[in-house]
Design a protein that fits this description.
9 helices; mainly alpha; 0% strand; globular; 75% helix
Length: 201
């Protein structure tokens, strides 16, 4: 007998989106403290952040503006509004996070691996509540929906391209650890975000 699919309630969405955003914000704090970079618009934000005095959250929010338009066209109003709210929240929380959390001793490899895993889980939670952090995730979800390509694999390819650009501003050790983090992030998404597997949408 087919199982009835249950939709998320508003409370479900709010807690899921907030938790996902906080996970990603903490991952960003790990990356920043270790001097690492990552992929997607988050990675581009890191590159611009390291090269300028502009606040990380502001760069992140502005870079994602074009993707709101794309998201609205391909995924509709609900997805776009949720994504806008998530990106705006992430931009604010990443600025507040250093006042809440600091690291006296942080192994860079642990920071890259744990940051990647936490960011992957956070992004996965947002996807499951019909939201995202815009940027590459929106494009990856669109290609998975229309072409059947794995969102995690698409994101990994783009992430590696952005990491290659970031190689000019970080050491080779930091670059290798950043790549490990990118693989960890996308492994979470590739392994867990599969059509038909999750019934909460």
């Amino acid at each position: 007998m087919p199982q009835k699919h249950l939709s998320h309630t508003l409370i479900d969405d709010l807690q899921g989106m907030l938790t996902g955003v906080v996970f990603v914000a903490l991952a960003i704090q790990l990356f920043k403290h270790a001097g690492l970079i990552t992929g997607g618009t988050t990675g581009l934000t890191f590159i611009l952040f390291y090269l300028s005095d502009i606040p990380y959250g502001l760069i992140l929010f502005v870079l994602n503006v074009p993707f709101y338009i794309f998201a609205y066209k391909v995924f509709g109003k609900e997805f776009t509004l949720k994504t806008f709210a998530c990106v705006a929240s992430l931009a604010l929380i990443t600025e507040w996070m250093p006042h809440w959390v600091s690291f006296g001793n942080l192994n860079p490899i642990f920071a890259g691996l744990m940051g990647g895993l936490m960011a992957g889980v956070g992004i996965l939670m947002l996807i499951r509540h019909k939201a995202s952090l815009a940027g590459v995730t929106v494009l990856a979800l669109y290609l998975q929906k229309t072409k059947g390509w794995r969102a995690g694999n698409i994101q990994l390819v783009i992430d590696l391209a952005i990491l290659a650009v970031g190689a000019a501003i970080v050491s080779w050790q930091q670059l290798i650890i950043s790549i490990i983090g990118a693989f960890a992030l996308n492994l979470v998404i590739t392994s867990n975000h599969k059509t038909g597997r999750y019934m909460g949408m």
